[in-house]
Design goal:
Helix content is 32%, strand content 24%. By secondary structure, it is of the alpha+beta class. A five-stranded antiparallel sheet has the order 2-3-8-5-6. It has a three-stranded antiparallel sheet with strand order 1-4-7. Strand 2 and strand 3 (22-28) form a beta hairpin. The protein starts with a strand and ends in a 5-residue tail after the last helix.
């Protein structure tokens, strides 16, 4: 009834029936499998109220993870096993460890279950919400990493030319605020409306009067551009941040 095509491997139709509505296939973890296609065979059909839910179990895992489904009107689909393996445990299938901690001899298991379409629709909705949350976390981590690097980097502040001179009397918190405000003022002019798109970028604003973090995105190239200009300004006037009054 079903066929499976792991990327870079031959088509496999040797799914084992566990019950009349459940099927399983075990595959070696090596070479790595990043994507897998599942489809109905040409002579196979499913009732309109039944869908084939596809599940995946990485090496050494104890539970299956829902990947998606196929059925009437969508007789085939391609699924990412790399994303599924890294979803909760951080486990990733790659050529360095075989996905099983270094032995290179692990296996991955694929399961297919015939389930009511209404039940599968609920699972698909939850899968989409989980994916959106992961994307949002990744965007937030990118933003946090970029801003942390800017604030904590001491190389941005050259030593005073006069050996007897002292470092800035401006409190570190105020200095950090001025750096952030300087970056915000520059980057805000490049904000693009993307409706929460998943392209690489930095979300800015939020809160009353700010830019909408779910819609206004800044390409990371603009962050790098600002950093180059910021360093150039420091080279020309190392104390310019100390002279700022009222923010920037």
């Amino acid at each position: 009834m079903f066929a499976v095509l792991p990327a870079g491997r031959p088509v496999n139709t040797s799914l084992t029936p566990i019950t009349p509505t459940h099927f399983a296939l075990t595959l070696p973890a090596q070479p790595p499998i990043n994507h897998i296609a599942v489809f109905l065979l040409p002579d196979a059909t499913l009732p309109p109220d039944i869908a084939a839910a596809v599940y995946f179990r990485p090496p050494a895992a104890t539970e299956y993870r829902f990947l998606g489904a196929i059925g009437e009107g969508k007789e085939s689909a391609i699924f990412s096993l790399r994303d599924a393996a890294a979803t909760d445990s951080g486990m990733v299938l790659d050529s360095s460890d075989g996905g099983d901690g270094g032995s290179g001899t692990g296996t991955v298991e694929l399961g297919i279950a015939l389930e009511p379409t209404a039940q599968v629709a609920i699972a698909l909705g939850q899968l989409q919400r989980d994916e959106e949350e992961r994307k949002q976390r990744r965007r937030q981590e990118q933003q946090n990493s970029a801003m942390t690097a800017l604030i904590t980097s001491r190389s941005a502040f050259p030593a005073p030319a006069d050996p007897g001179a002292t470092m800035s009397d401006v409190p570190p918190k105020v200095m950090a605020q001025r750096i952030i405000q300087h970056a915000f003022n520059y980057l805000a002019s490049f904000a693009e409306k993307r409706g929460g798109g998943d392209g690489a970028g930095v979300a800015v604003g939020g809160g009353s009067g700010g830019l909408n973090a779910m819609e206004d995105m800044i390409p990371l190239s603009r962050m790098r551009e600002w950093w180059v200009k910021f360093e150039g300004k420091l080279d020309r006037d190392p104390a310019f941040l100390e002279k700022e009054v009222g923010g920037v």
